[in-house]
Amino acid sequence: MGSIGTGQQDHAAGWERRGHGPREPVRLAVFQGELDATSHDELASTMRELLKAPDPIIVDLSGSRFCSASCIERIAEWAQRAKTMGIDFSIMAPRSIAQCFELFEPAPHVIPGHRPLTAGPERRFVHIYTV
């Protein structure tokens, strides 16, 4: 990919080759459906699994129809735990859920308004990928 019409194509191509080296893996957890009090155990289990590796983490809530205050609080606590471990932790969420994370101090990194990623049949609660 080069800058079109600027005569900088060779420079841009060389920059891409030098880049930042190999891309580091990212752990992605995709939650779908409703997250409520009955989800706490599976949520905690998923978060423990995600924190086993030092890779950056993305928690995708964009396919969630509902997320209770207690689940939002638990995710914010896990985000803080990841931060103390030096692990990047980001949350993708619908705006209605993303706004709730702003109530926490320090607020976790939230990317609001994302469209849901496809994670398979909706019957499954969570999918973890390393991408």
UniProtKB/TrEMBL annotation:
It holds the Pfam family STAS_2. Residues 1-21 are annotated as: Disordered. Coiled coil: none annotated. SUPFAM superfamilies: SpoIIaa-like (SSF52091). Residues 32-95 form the MlaB-like STAS domain. The lineage of its organism: Bacteria, Bacillati, Actinomycetota, Actinomycetes, Mycobacteriales. This is STAS domain-containing protein.
